[in-house]
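for the record, two folds in this file. i put them one after another cuz i was lazy. first one right below, seq on top, structure tokens after. the second one comes after a little note so u can tell where it starts
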Amino acid sequence: MFKITNYKIYKHAWIDKRAPHFGEKLDSTSISELLSNGGIMVRNTYDFDCEKETSFWYVVKDKFGGMEELSSKKRNQVKKSLKTYNVKKVSAEEILSVGLPIYQEACESYKVKTSIITSNEFRSRIASCEKMGRSDYWCVYNKETNEAVALAINTVFEDCCEYNTMKCKPKVMRNSTYPYYGLIYEMNRYYLEELKLKYVNDGSRSITEHSNIQQFLIDTFHFRKAYCRLQVEYKWWMRVLITFLYPFRSKILYLPIRSLLRMESFARLSKNTIK
């Protein structure tokens, strides 16, 4: 049953605050109620982990198989990572102390350029996480120097965990010490084996393609695509703008607009897969 309290505005769009398996299709009355309370659009997913292959998905893992589930090469890379680094679940204070340089250096290295987070923005992000009260923070430290080289910020629900943010200093991504391997392995172990959650989730299909992390998780740690339906609705003037720009989507270079039109294409394809 629709409750407006289950939704929040994020970057001008209404999204569901709950884990993706709670998502439900919204009717026109519910969409109107959301848009009458702010925002310019609604981005909603439903029919999570449906059997039919669709244009939209979440990247999830629901079983932890230890070292045995990894290929020989990947197993050695995880071992090298855990030999080089300490992977720790840390406090908000610690992530505030060491996280900003990791975040900034990682963003600067993306092939698709994005704005670099400021100190105030980073502090605001962690304050919002703490206010929400469901966040876990992880750091990866070099065992010899104790330098923090990677981080993760996760949202923990009652029965699943979403890997919201993973960042790593580019210099250690290129020196064959594999910091992400140990971080992801230990988080998978903790949430799936120790806490026995239903699944961990790296989020939905990217509309910006600024990173290849999701394909890395699929190829290396046996994450999979949990297909779902995507529903996107707009305020009337935004709908007019999207309809006008959509035929020119391949020629638009401005990333925010291009990403919006990419999401619109996913939503249209999702409608076409519904029988």
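(here's the note) second protein begins now
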Amino acid sequence: MTGTSVSAFDRSELRMNPLFDTHAHLNSKDFDENVAEVVERARQAGVVGIGVIGIDLATSRRAVELAAEFPDMIHAVVGIQPNSVAESSEGDFAEIEKLASAPGVRGIGETGLDCYWDDTPIEQQQAAFDQHIELACQTNLPMVIHMRESGELIAEQLARQSQLPAAVMHSFTGDWELAERCLEMGLMISFAGMVTFKKSDDLREVAKRVPEDQLLIETDSPYLSPEPLRGKRPNEPARVEHILRCLADVRNVPTSRLAEATTANARRFFQLP
């Protein structure tokens, strides 16, 4: 069988077991001119759902607009990302609270902590994270957590809560000890393009051990293009199949099985039929 034949077979197999990109930023300026084309390419690649994630009030509003425009494909998540907290205006979070009840909204976020950038003081980030946790609990919506170089602080803050919503650690980059803490709290773990990078052996070892029913996949478009497309921006949801193939390989399971499992997990997470 030729390489082309193998690729065609695998693509057909994935279409029989559709894919779900749980985290993309189709509300970013990278997609202002061609979002319909990007969504169509995702369909052609077997993607049946895309979580479009807000990072501030404007992108959260845009996520809601896209969910209305593509109701069978796009599911909005609204919130203020930790790096956007300092520049948000007074009253922005009250508007996020209103957006949470809009049609097509399926989650709160992205929220969390970021210790890589210093755009927002950590105390301010933590206060905003608490607000999002409370909103997710009040609305019974799942929460999307941003965790750049802050996994331990996030786990500690979550452990202090009297109540936790369903949540996912998006674009997970931590070690197994952190993953285990998150899994014990009932969190989902989602892997993006970094798990495919050649030097990400340790991350692939973590991905191998995450229980199948707590595993999600994402592109984090337009960022983190996976191998073999690393560095080619913008990334887009059609490329989520590369993350799926990588995880299926390291877990030694058929791509069809993992596609079915991660898509079912995404539907359950976002409370979709």
